[in-house]
Amino acid sequence: MKFSNILSSLSLFALSASAAFWDNIERTELFEIMETRVPEMRVTLGNDTWNEMVEKAQVNDLSKSSPFETQAQMKFIYDGVEEEYIINFKLGGRYSRETIKPGYNIKIKGSGETLHGTKNFRLRGDNRDASLMREKITTEILQKSGLLAVEVGYTELYVNDQYMGIYVVSDAVKGKWIRRKFGDEREDIKTLYQCKEDGSRLDDPTTKDKCVNANEDFLDYMEPFHKFIDQVQAAKTRSDLEKIMDVDNFLKYMAFEWIVGTWDHYLGNFCHNFYWYQQPNGIWVYIPYDHDVDMGSDIWTAFFPDKPFSSIDEIEFANVSFKDFELNHPILKILVHDDDTVFRQLVGDIVSKVFNPDTLLTRINTVRSLIDPYVKKDKELNAGMINKLGKNSRYNYEHFYLNSEYTYIFNDDYGFKGYGLKDWIVRHYNFIANYYGIDKNHKLIEPRPEPVVLPYTFTYERVLIGEKVREVVRGQQYAIQQYSPNPSYADDSAPVLGVNKFIKEQKDKKPQQIEQTEQCWSKKLNYPCCKCTTYPIYKDNDGAWGIENNSWCGIPNNCPKSECPGKIYGYNCCDNCNVISTDQIGNWGISNGQWCSIKESC
Ligand SMILES: *[C@@H]1O[C@H](CO)[C@@H](O)[C@H](O)[C@H]1NC(C)=O
Ligand SMILES: *[C@@H]1O[C@H](CO)[C@@H](O)[C@H](O)[C@H]1NC(C)=O
Ligand SMILES: *[C@@H]1O[C@H](CO)[C@@H](O)[C@H](O)[C@H]1NC(C)=O
After folding, report:
1. Ligand 1 residue neighbourhood (C-beta within 6 Å)
2. 348 C-alpha to center of ligand 1: Å?
3. How many other β-carbons are positioned within 10 Å of the β-carbon of residue 563?
4. Boundaries of domain holding 551
5. Domain for residue 561, yes or no?
6. Domain stop point among 122, 152, 175
7. How many domains are there within the chain?
8. Is 531 within the bounds of a domain?
9. Do 40 and 76 contact (CB within 8 A), yes or no?
10. Does the keyword Cytoplasm apply (predicted)?
11. 17: three-class secondary structure by DSSP
12. Ligand 1 probe mutation, 42, 47, 51, most atoms within 8 A of CB
């Protein structure tokens, strides 16, 4: 039995499939796993507790909702591997709780226990995103641009064996996330501030009271943040700002926000959904989160008070310049409008790396084919719709498909709406290319040509394409040509512009190269090293072997190890140290009548 399971683990070859889109990015193993699969999370809890949770989920107004949280068991299943965890299971999300398919937050219990490297994560139904891909694609745009972002994947959820459908899984920015991403080794992260409340602008003194310390043990520790707000408000020049914050990194995030047309972060009227974090070197950095309405979704002219277009019903947001898009932030006058040379380069870098139709349209097809069968099943069964009072966009499988292409979707009941993903990308790319001067190879043209300013008003009608769901159709003269992407276009060079300086300096300091060759024992034997996330398939006296690109590679000695060697083959770790048999994987014992893998610590 043991042996046949080990053979079936050969299907894990797929785990090492080339992931070119991600070559420069560090993720936890959980998100590596979800790169090419949609695993199952099966949560079990007492029926009474679940009934109470469903009861608490009946919400049509967030301010009337109450929290609900309980301990539960969770099986995590992928590729026939089944793992068990004890979790904290909680109704989650803000707006998400007002929708028919509410979200959940999960925390893996037990000190040091994680789900393949991730301890806290969120499951969201994203009912108002017809494409179900906004969160995924936007965070990938960030990461591929060299900007930190939460990580995103998909899972199927079951609660007490009831099928709840597909959920978007995302990482949560917490102390552990900060330690991992920034290499901040301090035990307590005390200088991470979350700005959830509307209007957390840097030029507004009340922001001091709006943002909160993200570490519950240090809620009163606000002085550093207050000082930061004062310093930003006093700053007159770029060099004043450079003393307190990572300026180019911040600017690249601002470029991103405009590029993906989001109104739900710093640039938007609501000015929320981000963190400010003071790094060990004293310099502040910006970290946005929650990307379900990016990419031209639910964007309204009324969110732009004081702009000439604020009273027009519908405009072409893809043709609105950065200057007209941002809401008169003094910091952006200093950093962009007075001289936009650096900003233009940052935009150019994002375009070359990722925000071009060749890269993104290809990527959308890949992500869509991964989730397609799961979305279909979810939509057919109206899965997970436990909040009977909640808002229901009524987006079905067909709308999912249309909205990931070129169809602009509008919901009659709630006015949810959104550009088709490919439509937004092609339209906005065209604008950026005209305004900043970008050639067919997605590179900035030097010297810079005169910016082309384009009109943004158009005529449209809304045509019914489903129950309460309409398509926004533009006049013929504003239609765009569908784009045939060239899948071989790639700019995989590591981003250097606007990447986090602190992290970069730390990485440059570490003599990583040398360390790696020492740990990479298989080089001597003329085999390449595996990535740490490659699964060991065979062990001999030299070390553990895995397979990448269909050939053997050696797993470096310094890769993090699991508690017991059999865990990755689907076995539980033994709760005792009685060795019954031994093979190339390690020692085996028996627990509860089942084979189990003896812990390394025995
Ligand atoms: C819980 O509910 C399910 C379905 O409603 C039922 O099949 C199961 O027997 C119940 N379990 C217990 C312990 O009552
Ligand atoms: C937006 O700009 C494009 C060029 O990129 C132009 O063809 C189009 O007509 C403009 N849209 C509107 C609504 O004016
Ligand atoms: C496998 O291919 C990927 C992508 O080309 C490369 O990054 C990786 O180093 C290769 N692995 C090995 C062990 O050669």
Report:
1. 47, 160
2. 57
3. 12
4. 506-597
5. yes
6. 175
7. 2
8. yes
9. yes
10. no
11. coil
12. 47
